[in-house]
Design a protein that fits this description.
The structure is a homodimer of 402-residue chains. Chain A is of the alpha/beta class and 402 residues long. Helix content of chain A is 35%, strand content 15%.
């Protein structure tokens, strides 16, 4: 059993050495394979986490779509990922056999780590082992709030502190930031002369604002983005007319391998979002390449970026344009260091491991009745299995000595 | 405790007197209120069943939409029925709090009777008391087959024998036909001079065929039907052009109170369906009024109707037209008797009660591991808790002395 305590992991995880190998079920959404063939943030993170946990000596079983290719033992929850089979409209029901497979065999695990949002909650309450759920989505949708409130006894992990805001009454036990394999993207010491926009075309990502920032700055913009069916009209009517300028190049969707060149050669990544971004994986992809990020202060942005250190955070168009003019002040080396210190898969896995140890030793079955009573008696957060919040990673302020 | 053994109940239920009051959870879909304000077969049946079980001395808790008005204690699974709130696209997820409410409190019941199709299956396996599920839908959809196959250990009730055909490997424990309160619709000894079509406009209900039957017979047709959004185009392009004849009257959707007059005054109900009808509630509504039914031999039709006794079963247009010409041979009194003998809420409740007694005395928790093993080891039907099929109601042939 190999348990590496990487010195680059920090905070709480660094203070607690892995004490024993755990039997861990990782429960992924079935919409995309793990990792996904194209777009799919959650499934990518599950792949990185599962593989890193195996490297750390744990026994991981990945419950995921049958076409998953992550290098861990797979329990296929469906023959193929649902998006490919055109059955995603039946989503929740098609997850049921996988959920049963996990929970009928719960005694084979020390901990179940769910990434399927609320779908695992009803069974988690009845299981003989604890389930920790990472919520990957934005939570400010009023339809779902009443659903989640029913499960305020179950431990949940946020991917940013800001993500918790609309549902503060849940039993939040930790924030664990996403991480990428250290060598997935390499440091590019020299940048090219363009600004980059990467992701998907949609109004809340504000590609129109990115184009305006580039135009006013007089610096070329390259856009690598997918266009969903639901956003095709927005693209045609709003964005396409703005692409006529020779300074804007639209290169469509790119794959993982193409990101190195695209992000690494950029002067900066533009991330002018106008929605409560739960995490924003592309920001740490840029940092991994040494590329600074210019972003609006929405959602997770102030937690992921250090203003003036790994890029600039600004709300208005004027301030965003001013940020581009100052981008030479940012050290690309420092951006890469921030990635290595806070956003690698090792750091993420060490932090999750610490959460697992917290829960794996609880007598979950005995705690169950008490949990359920607490949940039904009160709308307040249950304190039965909750720990005080802790954010083990070095915060932006501390990292900068401020 | 009032336990009535109604002499009109028949078959197995008649041979076994209710021995004790049971604590029964009735778990209804949240799409419509119980009973529904307009269309909604499942929710109507749950209302009739729950109210009849209370009359028989049982302690019933109805888990259903908060705007339900059935005369039994209600545990609201949602503030309102989902169809009214426009949230039905989130259906399965919005059922989760109700499912948790039932199964977190399972020890308060002797039996859980689920009408939410497969949604209760994962939790049913982990409960300390048995769940019997009535499947209300057609089951010949290839997408769902692999889902249901995973739960072949759990006891299910069909609403017709024919309904089982696409999923014979499930653990079918009984067929229980739907029933209506005895006095909901009254016997009409005299009919008027028109044919009736009642339900919803859709290609598989073959309203076009009904119009052709009436035209060739030279008898007026009245159509009382709702038109779903999904079938609006079919109505406009196929059915509306056929309504020009003065012999066809389209009167739109009617409510429960209007059915008495509409069905009671009809010469016959036309039911020329072209799909595997799981039950066909409108057939027994007609019989309750003494109105015979002319139907195509699809799905449940040969089980519900007695050819030549309560109407005629015919496949081709010629034979359906011939059936109309012979309709005077059918005794309206005999149609009402068939309803009273086989399709009242009393008969239905007595049959479900018999199923409940079969399961309520099983040590469900101990049987659980064995059930799950059987389910995972074999695709064959588990025999651990299954009884041989039995169809306790007097069959069509026996009723006719043939």
């Amino acid at each position: 059993m190999k348990l590496v305590q990487d010195e680059k992991t920090s905070g709480a995880a660094a203070f607690r050495a892995p004490t024993r190998s755990l039997r861990i079920a990782q429960l992924a959404p079935l919409y995309e394979s793990v990792p996904p063939k194209l777009y799919g943030g959650t499934e990518r993170i599950v792949a990185y986490l599962a593989e890193e946990l195996v490297r750390r000596g744990h026994e991981v079983t990945l419950y995921a779509a049958g076409d998953s290719t992550a290098s861990v033992p797979l329990a296929a929850g469906s023959p193929q990922s649902l998006r490919l089979t055109g059955l995603d409209h039946l989503g929740p029901i098609l997850h049921m056999p996988m959920l049963s497979d996990v929970y009928d065999n719960a005694s084979h695990f020390d901990i179940i780590h769910s990434h399927v949002e609320c779908l695992s909650f009803p069974l988690a309450r009845h299981a003989c082992v604890p389930t920790v759920s990472t919520l990957h989505s934005r939570l400010d949708t009023s339809e779902l709030l009443p659903i989640y409130r029913n499960y305020s006894d179950l431990p949940v992990v946020s991917i940013s502190k800001n993500q918790r805001r609309p549902m503060h009454e849940l039993n939040w036990v930790r924030t664990v930031y996403h991480g990428l394999p250290r060598d997935l993207l390499k440091f590019s010491p020299q940048s090219g002369g363009y600004l980059a926009l990467l992701g998907r075309i949609s109004p809340e990502k504000r590609p129109d604002l990115a184009i305006e920032i580039a135009r006013r700055s007089g610096i070329p913009l390259k856009i690598a983005a997918k266009i969903d069916r639901t956003n095709q009209e927005y693209f045609e009517s709003v964005i396409k007319p703005l692409l006529s300028s020779s300074e804007v190049e639209f290169i469509g969707e790119i794959n993982e391998a193409e990101k190195q060149q695209f992000l690494g050669a950029a002067l900066a990544l533009l991330f002018p979002v106008d929605w409560p971004e739960p995490f924003g994986l592309v920001m740490i992809e840029a940092l991994a390449c040494g590329t600074p990020v210019i972003a609006r202060p929405c959602g997770s942005v102030p937690e992921v970026l250090c203003d003036g250190v790994t890029g600039f955070i600004a709300a208005s168009l004027d301030d965003l344009v001013a940020a581009v003019s100052k981008i030479g002040d940012i050290s690309r080396q420092r951006c890469r260091e921030e990635f290595e210190n806070r956003f690698t898969a090792e750091v993420m896995a060490a932090n999750y491991e610490s959460v697992y140890y917290d829960f794996a030793d609880i007598d979950w079955r005995c705690a169950g009745q008490l949990r359920r009573s607490a949940a039904s008696l009160s709308t307040q957060r249950s304190s039965v299995v909750a720990r005080p919040d802790s954010y083990p990673l070095v915060s932006c302020d501390r990292a900068n000595g401020r």
